[in-house]
Write a structure and sequence with these properties.
By secondary structure, the chain is an alpha+beta fold. It has seven helices and 19 strands. It is elongated.
Length: 522
């Protein structure tokens, strides 16, 4: 039986429709996300613009930017000042100066009556003459040179004689020829002596004052000496050396050498003059006597102005070096050719001040006048008081006049640093991140862009910024402390500022987060 089997065909459109539906769903989802992303970005930009409109901003300033120390107080003093006291007893004879007189160094300002002076002062007036004479002889003494020269010449002759005596005992020089010559010399000397005797015998009974008789007698003595010496030399050649005599003569030579060396040294020393120690010792004696003499006088130790006088003619001075009464005031001198002002500065700022810096000086007691000064000296050693360390600074007034008095209080202004064409902003606009610095610059679109900067001079609440991307007049965010986790840039967060900035506030960062470079940057 045949069966007919029917096969039903399925349609292909079903799966296709499903795939198309899935693609359509994904496409719609993608479009939704794209639209949402664009919308989010637009909303973000809108939010940024709206946010930037609410941010406090400031303009970058450009121009002269300086660091100036103000409100510094110092005290005026004269260049030098000295109180002059009496140093011995007596009665004041005369005071030839008055207050206000200009005096020069070593001027006599007052003195005691010589008739009332102590004995030691009077004695010193005599002793100093001898001391000065001794000093002159020490410096140039022809007698000493002549004496040492004479001693040296005598020592040379003594050595020569001693050496001859020693050489005469040198048996190594004896030869047959020497012996023959010595023998002939002795014989000849004996013959000449005999002839001299015969001549004298012929004149023995002549008058004693007869010249021929005196000459004949002299010849006898002379030829006898020659004979004895010749005979002694001949006998020496024939004999042996006496060892004791040899040693004696050798010792005499060594002694003569030593004496000559000493004589030569003393002569050269005399030619060279006295040593510095000898001159100082001689001068010290003179100075000691002069000091004793000057104790009865008041003498100006330097040029200046007499500012106070207590001494009066007729005053009786009772001086006692063993008690406090030894400080008997006579008068005071001040050198007011140059006035100085002293003040102290913290260790935080001492390196900002250098010798030669100009200083403006004013006085409350001299209204309407400004004086010019110069930093004269900055101490290298600080003084510690509790936790503070300060350094002394001295200012010299360059154009002082008669209105300035020692002891006045002065107000000082010192320009520490200055930049002519600087770009500067408030310190609160500086962002600090990992030791680097930046500012938020407002773009034309209204958005904020973080721009790296370098810091230069810091003065008061402002800081110089260095960047090619920022110009004067650009708008930057003012207060970044609310956003900046680094805390912003605030060099005075822990320190109080003692400086005033020339139109810009004052102060230099004392360490901590102090910017690298500091100072004046261009």
């Amino acid at each position: 039986m045949d069966h007919k089997i029917e096969v039903q065909k399925k349609s292909i459109w079903g799966p296709i429709l499903i795939i198309l539906l899935i693609i359509l769903i994904f496409a719609a989802a993608g479009a939704f996300f794209v639209v949402r992303l664009n919308l989010t970005q637009q909303l973000t930009r809108v939010d940024s613009v709206i946010s930037s409109l609410s941010v406090a901003t400031t303009r970058v300033k450009e121009g002269v930017f300086d660091l100036t120390m103000k409100n510094i107080v110092g005290t005026v003093r004269s260049g030098r000042s000295v109180d002059l006291n009496w140093q011995t007893s007596g009665t004041v004879a005369e005071v030839p100066v008055k207050v206000g007189d200009q005096v020069r160094k070593d001027d006599l300002l007052a003195f005691l009556d010589e008739s009332t002076l102590d004995l030691d002062v009077i004695t010193a007036q005599l002793d100093i003459l001898d001391a000065e004479d001794d000093y002159k002889k020490l410096i140039s003494n022809p007698e000493k040179i002549a004496s040492t020269l004479s001693t040296m010449v005598q020592a040379e002759q003594t050595l020569e004689d001693a050496q001859k005596k020693l050489d005469s005992m040198d048996m190594s020089r004896v030869t047959d020829v020497n012996l023959l010559i010595a023998r002939e010399s002795a014989i000849l000397a004996e013959v000449k002596y005999g002839r001299a005797l015969l001549k004298f015998e012929d004149l023995r009974y002549a008058p004693l004052d007869s010249e021929p008789r005196k000459k004949a007698l002299g010849d006898v003595g002379g030829y006898r000496t020659v004979r004895d010496n010749a005979l002694a030399e001949y006998n020496w050649y024939l004999g042996e050396i006496d060892q004791l005599e040899l040693q004696t003569r050798e010792a005499a030579v060594e002694l003569a050498k030593a004496e000559l060396e000493e004589a030569q040294y003393q002569y050269q020393k005399a030619l060279n003059g006295p040593t510095e120690a000898e001159k100082m010792q001689a001068q010290a004696k003179i100075d000691a006597y002069q000091k004793k003499i000057d104790s009865s006088k008041i003498i100006a130790p330097f040029g200046g102005t007499v500012t106070q006088i207590d001494a009066k003619p007729g005053d009786v001075i009772t001086y006692d070096s063993s008690t406090a009464a030894r400080n008997i005031f006579a008068m005071r001198i001040d050198d007011i050719s140059t006035f100085y002002i002293d003040f102290t500065v913290s260790e935080l700022y001492v390196n900002s001040i250098r010798e030669g810096m100009p200083v403006r000086v004013s006085f409350a007691a001299i209204p309407g006048k400004i004086y010019n000064g110069t930093v004269y000296k900055v101490s290298d050693v600080g003084t510690q008081n509790a936790w503070n360390i300060t350094f002394n600074v001295t200012i010299a007034i360059d154009n002082a006049d008669s209105d300035i008095k020692s002891g006045m209080t002065a107000d000082l202004t010192i320009e520490v640093a200055r930049v002519e064409d600087a770009k500067y902003v408030p310190q609160t606009s500086i962002i600090v991140k990992d030791g680097r610095y930046a500012v938020n610059l407002k773009k034309l679109s209204g958005e904020m862009e973080e721009v790296p900067v370098e810091l230069g001079l810091i003065s008061g609440t402002n800081v110089q910024i260095i960047s090619d991307k920022i110009s004067g007049g650009d708008e930057i965010e003012l207060d970044v402390n609310k956003k900046n986790t680094g805390g912003g840039f605030n060099p005075f967060a822990m320190f109080g500022a003692m400086m005033g900035g020339g139109g810009n506030g004052g102060g230099r960062p004392p360490g901590g987060n102090r910017p690298p470079g500091g100072g004046n940057r261009r």
